Amino acid sequence: MNRSVEFFDTQFRKQVANRDFALNPFETAVLPFVRGRVLDLGCGLGNLSIEAARKGARVVAVDSSPTAIVRVVDVSRAEDLGMTAVVTDVAAYRIEGNYDAIVAIGLLMFMPRDAALRLLGEMKEHVAPGGLAIINVLVQGTTYMDMFDPGGYCLFGRHELEEHLAPWRLELAQHDSFDAPGGTKKEFSTVVARKP
Length: 196
Known about the structure:
By secondary structure, this protein is an alpha/beta fold. Helices cover 33% and strands 29% of the residues.
């Protein structure tokens, strides 16, 4: 398990123990776009996937954290949501089939740049015509680095997602800055882009 997966698996165990399943600000912003056949890559505890499934989406949720996937499976079974949950090395995951929405919130920056760009390209290929790519990443200017595996991450340029998704129509493009421990910062880019 690399440092990033360990960091989040530990965090997820704490959140499960505390029953802390609130949507983060990025998930809240994109939830209205998450419908139809959905692939949620790096789903974490599945908060967004579960809310989308409750609204009728058919969700495949993928994460590297066993703790996260157990929670998704438990909720899906308890509420009869029919979700598919997969624990795997997300960086090596291969997408099969097309989706109305492919989500990667807080995922791509935890991979070396070549792996992140490969997965981004695969996402673009497997979004159905008229469907959406929903992506959130940390960008340059971020100084909080404790969660990263040294040498196994990339910070995107501030507008790099928009450039990679051109000429898709932007439904949402926002930048957010948050204070982080030790006087550091987290700088985020969130993009929802519709495939022609």
